[in-house]
Each structure stands twice: as C-alpha cells, then as structure tokens.
Specification:
single chain; 136 residues; mainly beta; four-stranded antiparallel sheet; 2 helices; 9% helix
Length: 136
C-alpha cells in the first residue's frame, strides 16, 4: 500500500483541481498542465506548468489552484518560464492550507500577461521536499 509520501509525484500531477483560462480559443481546447518531478528528501523540485492549445491559442490570464501534500512538500517560489517571459507576464503564487484536508496545501497560481500568452512552459513552481519524506 502506498502512503501519501510515496505517492508524491502522482499527487502533484493529479491534484491540479481547478483552472481558469481567459483564452481566445475555446476553453475546452486549451489546457494548463501541471508537470511532475522526482526528488529525494531535502531536495528542491521544480514542477513545470505548461499552457497548451490549438494553433493560434492565446490567453491574457491563466489561473490554477493546485493541491499538494503539505506534510511532504513546502512551497518555495513560482518562477516565470519562457512563454510567460515572452508575454511580459507577471507570475504570482500564494500557498495556504486546504480547508478540508489538513495534509494538503493549495497553491493559487496567477499568470497575467501584458501581451497575449502563447502555448509553452509558463512557470516553474518550486517545492522543498521534507527530510521525513519516504522514498518511492
């Protein structure tokens, strides 16, 4: 049986629980994808956030609410990636405890471009892995 600590990577990929896209393409044609990474206890991990859509898709603002196991990960910072830099976008991230589950944190990620944001990697969210995290 896998514990929460053992399913760290799959939780990051699966728990992107809500997103809002202000896109020129239909919302169902565009996506904001949360990547995954593996790390050892005490390491820092960088998780890519990728905006994707059909040819010509753009967005003015991207917003995602991402749940993560706060007993294993501590949010550090969200950095702009190339697609956000090209749009002169501002990346803001706020982390708070989940109101319903004490073992989860919720990260609100807001990416607002001064010009349209085109598909690509828009941000990297960085977490510190707890020294108590179990391998696997």
């Amino acid at each position: 049986m896998r514990t929460r600590e053992n399913s760290l990577i799959s939780r990051l990929a699966v728990l992107a629980c809500a997103l809002l896209l202000a896109a020129t393409a239909k919302a169902e044609d565009t996506r904001l994808n949360v990547g995954f990474a593996s790390a050892k206890p005490t390491d820092q991990i960088d998780i890519p956030i990728t905006f994707s859509g059909p040819d010509g898709a753009t967005a003015g603002t991207l917003i995602a609410h991402i749940s993560y196991p706060s007993n294993v990960l501590t949010f550090d910072v969200a950095d702009r990636a190339l697609a956000a830099e090209l749009a002169d976008a501002e990346v803001k991230a706020t982390s708070k405890p989940d109101a319903k589950d004490k073992d989860l944190g919720v990260l609100e990620l807001n990416i607002s471009g001064k010009s349209p944001i085109k598909p690509g990697i828009v941000a990297y969210i960085k977490f510190k892995v707890s020294k108590d995290a179990k391998k696997g």
